[in-house]
Amino acid sequence: MNYLRRKLLFYLIAVWAAITINFLIPRLMPGSPVDALLGRLQQAGGAVSAEARASLEVMLGHGGQGGLWEQYVGYLGNLLRGDFGISSTYFPTEVSTILGAALPWTLVLVGLCTCLSFALGVTLGMVVGWRRGSRLDHLVPIATFLAAVPYFWLALVLVFLFGSTLRLLPLTGGYEYGTTVGFNWAFIGSALYHALLPAITIVLSSVGGWLLGMRNMMVSTMGEDYVLTAEAKGLRPRRIMITYAARNAVIPSIAGFAISLGFVVSGSIVTEVVFSYPGIGFTLLQAVQNNDYPLMQAVFLVITLTVLGANLLVDLLYAVIDPRTRQAG
Amino acid sequence: MAGVEKRRTASSVDTAAVPVPRGPGRARRPRGGGLLRDVKLRTGLGIVGCFALIGLVGPFLVTDVGAIGNAVLRPPSAEHWLGTTQTGQDVFGQLVTATRGSLIVGLVVGLLATVLSVLVGVVGGYLGGRVDEGLSLVSNVVLVIPSLPLVILITNYLDGAGILTIALIISITSWAASARVLRAQTLSVRTRDYVAAARAMGERTWRVVFVEILPNLLPVIASQFVFAIIFAILTEAGLSFLGLGGIDYLTWGTMLYFAQNAQALTVGAWWWFVPPGLSIALVGVGLSLINFSFDELINPRLRAPGVPRRPRTRRRQA
Question: In this structure, is residue B164 part of a structural domain?
Answer without folding.
Answer: yes
